[in-house]
Amino acid sequence: MVNAIAAPLLASEVTSAPAAHEHHVSIGVTIFFGALLALMILTLAFEEKIHAKKSIITGVYAIVALLVATAMGLLPFGELTNPWGEAIKMPIYIPAVDWGVITIIFGAGLFVDVTSKSGIFTWIAIKLTK
Known about the structure:
Layout: H1 27-45, H2 47-50, H3 54-71, E1 79-81, E2 87-89, H4 99-118, H5 120-129
Antiparallel strand pairs: 1-2
Helix pairs in contact: 1-3
């Protein structure tokens, strides 16, 4: 027997409201962007042969994906209301970026760059291998 407190927590008791707008992507679009991802991975594998940096390769593929998605009408433009009720003017490129993650990545890269110049990683490697 389920008590009254736990009943709302059970999956069988939870009902969700139907979505106002369901978004469906065709299989052709999925295959295209999957192929674009595979091509990016292949390009990264041949990074040294084509004399390009990984960051440039991934950046170019990201820009291509954004432009193609915009041309296909997959990205929303105009005013959009997020789940918290805030109205956001689009294009979605800037509001969709998770700036907290970008800041963490940048900070970690800066930390590694500064500390590697001190020689700490070399010292740790020598201590661990002895």
